[in-house]
Automatic annotation (TrEMBL):
UniProt KW keywords: Cell outer membrane, Membrane, Signal
Name assigned to this protein: Porin family protein
Family to which this protein belongs: Belongs to the Omp25/RopB family.
Native organism: Chelatococcus sambhunathii
Cell location: Cell outer membrane
Amino acid sequence: MIRNILLGAASIAAVALAAQSARAADLPMEPAPTVAAPVPSFSWTGPYIGVQSGYAWQRASNMKPDGWMIGGFAGYNWQLGEGSGAVVGIETDINYADIDGKRPNGAGGRTKVSQDWNGATRARLGYAFDRFLVYGAAGVAYGDRELKRRPGGTDSKTAVGWTVGGGVEYAVTENVALRGEYRYTDYGKDKFNLGRFSTKSSATEHRVMGGVAVKFNSPF
């Protein structure tokens, strides 16, 4: 009799287990959770070219020449290491300029100083906060300087000096960045021969510039 009771209990357990399995098979399958791929951060590494314009205030030969300029620039940035915000680079620019200043001289005439073009080649060091870059730059500056004295004569030189400054850039797309910057430049001192007169003249400059650059993918 005990044997029959045990066999009956085993049969009941088997039927209950089968029924439970059938109910589990009818339940809908939950989809596996998806994991979004990480969005890559912006990289400043690569070559770029751009256009710019700005305004300059100079001091030269007891005058204060000022005026506009417009030109272009090109360079290359390296963002140092994966996940690093440090950025180093090299850049050169060349600009058409309309900068001049005048003053009367003791001979009843006037003296005029002017600059028609300028440029610079600079090293850059900055730090990037994703698409926002803050940088400083320094290097060699060059430009024409013309001194005209009436009565007297006219002489021009290609001045070479140094420049230092800084700015900010913002990448509005993967390939387009806007910038604004300030520069201080010292063009040094040159000797000008003005007919019967000769004089030495130095020139310094403050300027503000704005520009837009097109960035290309790094070939490396």
